[in-house]
Amino acid sequence: MSVTRRGVVKGGAAGAMSIALAGSLDGIFQTSAGADTGEAYGYGPLIPDPKGVLDLPKGFSYKTLSVEGDPISDGVVVPGHHDGTATFPAHGGRDHFPHWPDFSGAPDWPGWSATAKSANGKRGATILVRNHEQSNNGTRAVAPPELTYDPAANGGTTNLLVDRDGDLVAQYVSLAGTSTNCAGGRTPWGTWLTCEETEGFGAQTKTHGWVFEVDPYGRRTKPVPLTGLGRFSHEAVAVDPHTLTAYLTEDAAGPFGLFYRFRPRAHRGNYHAYLEGGRLEALNVRDVPDLSLVTEPGTRLHARWVAVPDPSAKQTSVRKQFDTITRSQKLEGLWWGHGKAYFVCSFSKKSDGAAADHAGQVWTYDPRSNEIELQLIFKPGGRFDGPDNITVSPYGGGVILAEDGDGEQYLVGTTRKNKPFAMARNALNGSEFTGVTFSTDGRVLFANRQSDPGVTFAITGPWHRLRG
Description:
This protein is mainly beta. The protein is 6% helix and 35% strand. The strands form seven sheets. The protein has a six-stranded antiparallel β-sheet with strand order 1-2-26-25-24-23, with no helix packed on it. A five-stranded antiparallel β-sheet has the order 13-14-15-16-18, with no helix packed on it. The chain has a five-stranded antiparallel β-sheet with strand order 17-22-21-20-19, with helices on one face. A hairpin with a 5-residue loop joins strand 10 (181-186) and strand 11 (192-196). The protein is globular, with a radius of gyration of 21 Å. The two termini are 30 Å apart.
């Protein structure tokens, strides 16, 4: 199976519609990699940053927040390896932030100002919950014992309070002692699910490979795994707000990972639905053992769901509990939008044992039709490659993808007609982008450079001027 321009034309109206949703043929078949040469759509060409940090289109600007190693409080610094992130509206008084340290006696602390005590109650202020993808390495996440799961693990999450202008007001480590916190997902009841992309490491004192819940307001975060969501190399999660079904990706090899759903036993509008357990299932598409075999955007496949025998993987890794199942190399980003779960396969290589080569796929799963649909595929050697984290944009219904590919690293957007374009470029180094997400009012796009050093960017500009 392969996509060609002629093959797409032969697809007729359905094929044409799928391309309109997926992105232009130029974006899919582009073969010239390298510097930005201009955009006929999106927000125009990227302008070189005089500081050599982040190239953006004309009219856009950025601020850097919460750099790895920045001091937070006595003996605590911003952890490293910034990764998956979500935003939440800031509201209420300081009582909603019981774990936030008092920085009034530390005038040299970066980002602190006299507005810290009141900014969380002002319109447009945002709370970010951000992952740190570290196991027993990197700049350690340090938190009080009541927020620490395994003292041997260096990963965790940080909560940031940001005002409506994208300035950092305060931050603290909201969960520690977890490992390899890669991506995750926001819940309909207003919390963050942080995912461990691991099945353990040598120094651990507790099992790893779980999902944990983090309260952005610091009221009920507990370092207790949600065991019903399984123990495997979690990448991301997205929750259907109507049924509370969670969809999960697994980034693993030997064998490749699976796409899962978790159906809670109790239909409650909060985290109790997950604490009470449920049924974990894996996607199995008939006659498609590897998603890389599907290469034509617009292809729709009926989903079948198979129960996971042992979600806690007490003896055998979850993905090894199946003889016949649908797998994919590098199942990564996941986001809920437009009534569907958008999920990403970063790349596929036959040299790694995959069935076919590609440089990235974007899929959707529609629970109403119980179908997955290939929306976008990148050809190896093209301008864009290695999509990872994903968010659905409030402007025109497109998406923003964070690259973790070869060569230059981009934030890749899609227009109202879903034509792909370069939204930003890492001008400093080759570190991947992560944690792409909009503020709750849509004014600010947040994204992370993962390392060297890790940093969060707050990007603002004329979002409504989207062309195409």
